[in-house]
Specification:
By secondary structure, the protein is of the alpha/beta class. The protein is 38% helix and 17% strand. It contains 9 helices and 13 strands. It starts with a strand and ends with a helix. The structure holds nicotinamide-adenine-dinucleotide and uridine-5'-diphosphate. The site of nicotinamide-adenine-dinucleotide (NAD) has 29 residues, from α1, α3 and β5.
Length: 313
């Protein structure tokens, strides 16, 4: 069944893959983006598609369109970008959520929020389950993103309780793949680009902190399953790959796959950098029948091939 779908942040890394998938599934897609971290390049191959429309729009302003589904992804996601203009980051999460929830209420659309594992902050519980309330610094450098996303979750659940809005909330753990921004400072893109250029690989701290990395195709599958899950299931639901790696292990893996002569160098750990991160995905498995299929090595190969092509071009 063809649906009219709005993807905010649709010209970004995850959003552009989601637009690809929705069009392939036969939907009519409106992509709204202010191109802060996203780019027209990410969706250039879709511009001639008869059911794709690209709109320059900032979600901190209201949007009046007729749609049946809304995926709310608009928000810079990398620490470098979300800390560049922290006030705007909070506005994007909070005002953006209010505007998109208002739109969903008016047109009776189902709305999905791209939340984040950052709502758990630097967690004392490991792995993280959805019941855990998190440990977030409310006044630190990461707070504009973490607290903005937490407040967006609050708004989603209040609209659900107060206005019976049909909501879905997914908490995304670190996701990587082709179309990541080469300069956004995230660890996977940094390490790959550094290795391809033969530059030093920058490890923050001693590299013993952990993250769990999900390949983009697995994440998009979960988005689609969550959006079409029964109305009673709102989430929040963790989406990520439970495979957990230290940053040191990741650097060594990237180096082994890329080859070259880059050296590992150690740099200061950014403030409030979480020590460890691993999703418990039992709920996603039970409710969505979902689990990731792509292992880190296969996903890294695809991502390395993408950055190699991009750098050559
Ligand atoms: P991204 O930076 O590539 O995409 C974000 C998109 O939102 C960009 O296209 C950007 O231009 C757009 N945007 C930013 N502010 C906007 C505004 N005010 N109005 C309209 N558009 C705006 O990042 P991504 O990795 O694709 O992340 C997409 C979403 O998923 C974000 O909400 C992010 O918080 C969430 N998320 C991503 C990850 C991950 O590991 N990739 C993890 C957790 C959560
Ligand atoms: N990191 C690193 N070197 C880099 C970039 C990041 O060691 O060049 C570390 C960073 O300190 C963090 C982890 O990698 O511990 C993941 O960082 P990223 O910014 O990708 O995501 P987040 O911290 O938001 O999970």
């Amino acid at each position: 069944m063809m649906r009219k779908v709005l993807v905010t942040g649709g010209a970004g890394f995850l959003g552009s893959h989601l637009c690809d998938r929705l069009l392939a599934d036969g939907h009519d897609v409106l992509c709204a983006d202010n191109f802060f971290t996203g780019s027209k390049r990410n969706v250039a191959h879709l511009l001639d598609h008869p059911y794709f429309e690209l709109l320059r729009h900032d979600v901190t302003f209201p949007l009046y369109v007729e749609v049946e589904r809304i995926f709310n992804l608009a928000c810079p996601a990398s620490p470098v970008h979300y800390q560049h203009d922290p006030v705007q980051t909070t506005k994007t999460s909070v005002h953006g959520a209010i505007n998109m929830l208002g739109l969903a209420k008016r047109v009776k659309a189902r709305i999905l929020q791209a939340s984040t594992s950052e709502v758990y902050g630097d967690p004392e519980v490991h792995p993280q389950r959805e019941e855990y309330w998190g440990r977030v610094n409310p006044i630190g450098f990461r707070s504009c993103y973490d607290e903005g996303k937490r407040c967006a979750e609050t708004l989603f659940f209040d609209y659900h309780r107060q206005h019976e809005l049909d909501i879905k909330v997914v908490r995304i753990f670190n996701t990587y793949g082709p179309r990541m921004h080469p300069n956004d400072g995230r660890v996977v893109s940094n390490f790959i680009v550094q290795a391809l250029k033969g530059e030093d690989i920058t490890i923050y701290g001693d590299g013993s902190q952990t993250r769990s990395f999900c390949y983009v195709d697995d994440l998009i599958e979960a988005f689609v399953l969550m959006m079409e899950s029964p109305r009673g299931f709102t989430g929040p639901v963790n989406i990520g790959n439970p495979g957990e790696f230290t940053m040191l292990a990741l650097a060594e893996k990237v180096l082994a796959l890329v080859g070259g002569r880059s050296k590992l160098v150690f740099r200061p750990l950014p403030a409030d950098d979480p020590r460890q991160r691993q999703p418990d995905i039992a709920l996603a498995q039970e409710k969505l029948g979902w689990r990731p299929k792509v292992g880190l090595e296969d996903g890294l190969r695809e991502t390395i091939a993408y950055f190699r092509r991009t750098l050559e071009a």
